[in-house]
Design a protein that fits this description.
The protein contains 10 helices and 10 strands. It has helices spanning 2-12, 31-39, 41-44, 74-78, 91-103, 156-169, 190-200, 215-225, 250-254, 260-271, and strands spanning 18-20, 54-58, 84-86, 108-112, 140-141, 148-152, 174-181, 184-186, 203-206, 237-239.
Length: 273
Amino acid sequence: MGFTGIAVGAAMAGLRPVCEFMTFNFSMQAIDQVINSAAKTCYMSAGSIAVPIVFRGPNGASAGVAAQHSQCFAAWYGHCPGLKVVSPWSSEDAKGLLKASIRDDNPVVMLENELLYGVPFEMSEQAQSKDFVVPIGKAKIERQGTHVTLVSHSRPVGHCLEAAAVLAKEGVECEGGGVINLRTIRPMDIDTVEASVVKTNHLVTVEGGWPQFGVGAEICARIMEGSAFNYLDAPAVRVTGADVPMPYAKNLEDNCIPQVKDIIFAVKKTLNI
């Protein structure tokens, strides 16, 4: 609460602080500063006071850290106007989104994943340049396909890519979350998702958070409310974390987090195969 308040005040005074939480679960101690101070000040001051701050740190489940260290806050912070929320998967995402977040004049919540910190990714020459920035609010198609749209963010993007590789051997080509990597939760690039659904006629969303009021629920609602709904050949399917506090025991934890097999099952369900 203390260092978050200091950082928010520094942002109001013209600096661009980066406020790091050891885990976003601890950001609950500072939620008043994040929401009531950082997110609302520009609006309440009629645009005269900007709060260019980045809140960053590990988000979602790690490994064996139980319920108080395993919550995904993508839906939580994505719910709040005044914030921008980004959720990187690859090294390219992490570098480009952090730079964009620091340069943005709005408060940005950057939800990283602890289990990805030690995972190496290939970086293109463009991504390694000093001018490289990933625009906030723009999703990335990680894999092209024709049969089903997979949409995800953060670590589950990798699971989606693994599932897509397995399904491709069975003649099912995926596009989305393994293949549409959202990268930004708020503002959400629903145009990219809609364009893919129009092409594939099937939608599966994948996330590590809880199902109720989740990111997948928002995506499904947006698709239902828009023109892409008319192109769906089957109901959209959500793959989420289990609707329980995270257990400590490894076998129970594994059953609470979306796995590759769960994504494959969901794809086959929506395709009725």
